[in-house]
Amino acid sequence: MDSATLIESFADFAKKKNIDRPTMIRILEDVFKTMIRKKYNYDDNFDVIVNSEKGDLEIWRFREIVDDNSEDIWDHDKISLSEAKKIEPDFEIGEEVAEEIKLEDFGRRAVLTARQTLLQKVKDLEKDLLFQKYKERVGEVVVAEVYQVLGREVLLIDNDNNELSLPKNEQIQKDRFRKGDSVRAIVHKVETTNGNPKIVLSRTAPSFLERLFENEVPEIFDGLITIKKIVREPGERAKVAVESYDERIDPVGACVGMKGSRIHSIVRELKNENIDVINYTDNLELFISRALSPAKVVRMEANEDSGRVAVFMKPDQVSLAIGKGGHNIRLASKLVDKEIDVYRENEGGADEDVLLSEFSDEIDQWIIDELKRVGLDTAMSVLALSGEELMRRTDLEEETIEEIIKILKQEFE
């Protein structure tokens, strides 16, 4: 293989991989310098000249002419006068000999090795460029096409045929993908696995919802409205606190749009995730009341030491505050960064509900006290929560909670 064929084949490969010409020449020079070091042990007195467009390669070796009896004759950058005269009879001591080294002088095996090294260096560079490209795009929304659905992840390809990964835990529970589907997701993180870049996407990250709002609401994109905080239970419910820097703009109305036109497309993208848009305020009590919407709060008591807030409301509002599966109160607590305990406001009237204290003959008092500590003072307030939510909010074990639920249910059967 001659130099022109080698460089031309490498140049074509590099162009397909979108490698710029200066980088391509630098790679060529590095590879040929490596060849020189393997053959001559040194490369500091060699020049490598590459013209990738013409396929030209020139390798020049420079040595200073010394007397045949000189002590420096064995230095790598010196040549004896007698050897120099074989190249050019008119050479004299002290002059510099420029000798061209042909590619063929390195041997066939060395040339083939160089070719493989060139291709590998381009592939490594391509990996680095891909890593840097997506590292800079972390937090951006991308659109990619599904090409393989696996058990633990969905593999997608972007417009440049780069592979992207959407793991199972970054998918909305209701997501169903087929080959050829177009998918929108956020670039969540970029990792390196076994020397290969891995681009991980997400549809469950709060930042994905934030980017969707930026795309749909021009006022957010322009900075007139800012998103203060987002909390999500992907595919189920989300709460978005927004604030306007312009008194003339209603931030909630702008985000929802006329007849819900702006938020509907976001809800559809997130598989009908229920999105509550809330007007942010520094007033904690008002912010908590808005966060618990649609439930209406009668009064509340905050405990600064414990970081908990006791919220009192009419009995018919408690289930609204807690929400299906406890989603509403759980997200409200995350949004205001406080643990919210809901209590029924005693109105003195008859109610079908039963106070937990009336079960003291069947349930230990310390268990009743633990439930009351988190705002659960009646049978219905306990039954409104799932077993998992009760475990999360209290220090009770699973078996204890199952027994409590069984006892309370018997009361209403």
From TrEMBL:
Residues 6-128 form the Transcription factor NusA N-terminal domain. The keyword Transcription regulation applies. It is found in: Cytoplasm. It comes from the Bacteria. One of its GO terms (cellular component) is cytosol. One of its GO terms (biological process) is DNA-templated transcription termination. Residues 203-280 form the Transcription factor NusA first KH domain. Residues 285-347 form the NusA-like second KH domain. The keyword Oxidoreductase does not apply. Keywords: Cytoplasm, RNA-binding, Transcription, Transcription antitermination, Transcription regulation, Transcription termination. Its main location: cytoplasm. Belongs to the NusA family. Participates in both transcription termination and antitermination. Monomer. Binds directly to the core enzyme of the DNA-dependent RNA polymerase and to nascent RNA. PANTHER family: TRANSCRIPTION TERMINATION FACTOR NUSA, TRANSCRIPTION TERMINATION_ANTITERMINATION PROTEIN NUSA. This is Transcription termination/antitermination protein NusA. The lineage of its organism: Bacteria, Pseudomonadati, Bacteroidota, Cytophagia, Cytophagales.
